[in-house]
Amino acid sequence: MGAMQAYNGGCHCGALNLRFETAVAPASLQRRACQCSFCRSHGALTISDADGALRIDAKVDALVRYRFGLKTADFLICARCGVYVGAVLSEGGEAWGIVNANVLHDRASFTAPIEAISYDNETASLRGERRKSRWTPVEAFNV
Ligand SMILES: [Zn+2]
Measured in angstroms, how far is the CA atom of residue 2 from the centroid of ligand 1? Predict the structure, then answer.
């Protein structure tokens, strides 16, 4: 793996900003098309790197935390422009997140094949373990 590279992005109006750092080349980073109805409604393509870092900055009153299903993670949506930027799982003072690759300025560089994945049959505990092992550690979440 090479050096860490930072990819910036966020919602359409600029109220939510993300910085995703990874040493994996963007063309090699798995893109997941989660098959749940929320992700399909947004056309989201999910990326993460357990060895990377994620930073999220939200302007005052701009962040909607949407929970559904097992309600174990916050799906982050801009209250002003409606863009779904990613999701965060918080537990025991730590947090892990995923990014919707479509919101990154450099989205065109993320060209790995899209894998359609369904997590419908997971229990809450298996879901938590999967996320903590695969999602990106959140180094800052400023709201
Ligand atoms: Zn916005």
Answer: 32
